[in-house]
Amino acid sequence: MRKISALLLALVLLLGCIGSAAADGEDLPINVTTPQNVSVNWMEGNDSPTSMSLSFSIDPQMSQALIAIDQARDAGILETMLAKYGATDVYVNIQIDWALDDVNDPVSGWHYNEYWDDKYGMGLGRDEEGHYRFSEWDVVDWGLNSLDTVQNYWIMRGVPDGDRWNGVPENGTPGVKDQLRPDQYEYYDDSVHIDFTKHTAYFRVRYALTAVKETEEGVQYLNKFSEWSETASYGKDAVAYTPIKAGDIAAPEITDLHMTDKEFNDNPVVAFTLTVPDALSKMAADASAHGGGIVIETEARVKGDTEWVGMGNTDWEIKTGEMECALVTLISENHPKIAKDTPIELRCRYRCDQTGLDDVFSEYSKVLTFETTEIGNDPQPTPTETPVQPTPTPEEKKEETKKDKCPICGFCPQPLGLCIFIWIAIIIVIAVVVIIVVKKSRKDEKK
């Protein structure tokens, strides 16, 4: 019940974010927030000579709304919730535009065009005949990687000397070669090379949110777009990246610690709400673009213990919203079982890793306390111990030897409890009886 209530609340926030259906029946208006904190970094020849790592962050309200949509879809109630808007589903793609040296240049400037808006209803980036009107380096219809705050993508990746480089002129599909001036690059080893000490690459991002509507004419896809983000850049004229250092990251803001109805390995799971401020989102996006990242670490302990326990099987990627923590990690030699209503303490901190640098940690959050249900249910059956046979003493060994020794011959194994020579005698007697009977029968036949 708590989860469904949370979904309803989040979807109310979503619909407030994307707008409301007009009384006169106009199409569902969708006004999503702009991607934030765009950051980009050249990958120094890794992956391909031109590859860039680009990151941005999702606005907390939009992030919560998208999480609610995903949960409602999984619960099978999304279509019901969107019915009043005439929609059956809603999802988000991203578009990344790029330019080299001059964003207004007619060749190497921004490459966005009317086809990116799905003008003809054939799909994002397609013309009225369904042909692509964007190049390999134009990101037109990529989905979100996850519902976490920070998104990361590899872009401007090298292309072979084929349609991806040269385009398909008869279809109006541009190649990357068509979007660069000859003095901006060199092409060899089946890949394009750009000297970023002499050139600057620029990038901007926007959301393309699609509402799916079922009408009498069939399924329709209504696209609405956010504003373009602020421009990020890398190269000759770009501002150099400043690494994150100790003291830059504030302690996590956590609230509403509570038990959930979930279990992990037959033991309880708790949840708390994390609030991700914009300053942290920006640092996380910067760190992600430069090969690092910021994660949240969760620790807990039984109240009264001195040592904190790093909790495994716990949400660690940062996002505004509910974070879950499995309590099975608290089981130890000192606490093989933790009784119901035992007070448990929990705290968090951020950890930032950056390529070639030591990790940077925030201060710890405030300590939250809750009373747990029983912890210590062993999900694996305890193996049955194999009985250990005691080693016989020398006297016992002698007694066993005596028992095993034949009292008649002194050496045979006594098959079926009799000496083997008795068995031989019995067989001989039987054989003699059979011979006598056979001879007597023959004499009777002659008479």
Describe this structure in words.
The structure is a single chain. With 447 residues, the chain is of the alpha+beta class. It has helices spanning 2-18, 60-75, 78-82, 163-166, 278-289, 394-404, 420-446; strands at residues 36-42, 52-57, 89-100, 139-143, 150-155, 186-188, 191-193, 200-215, 218-225, 232-235, 253-264, 267-275, 293-302, 309-310, 321-326, 343-353, 360-361, 368-371. The longest helix has 27 residues, at 420-446. The N and C termini lie far apart (106 Å). Residues 19-29 and 379-403 have low confidence and may be disordered.
Instruction: Report the order of strands and helices.
Output: HEEHHEEEHEEEEEEEHEEEEEEHH
Instruction: Give the termini separation.
Output: 106 Å
Mean pLDDT over the full residue set? 85
Form type: elongated
Largest sheet: 5 strands, antiparallel
Task: Report the portion of residues in β strands.
Answer: 25-35%
Secondary structure tally, helices: 7
Radius of gyration: 38 Å
User: Structural class, judged by helices and strands?
Assistant: alpha+beta
Which regions have little confidence, pLDDT < 50, spanning 5+ residues? 19-29, 379-403
- The residue fraction in helices comes out at 10-25%
By DSSP, the count of extended strands is: 18
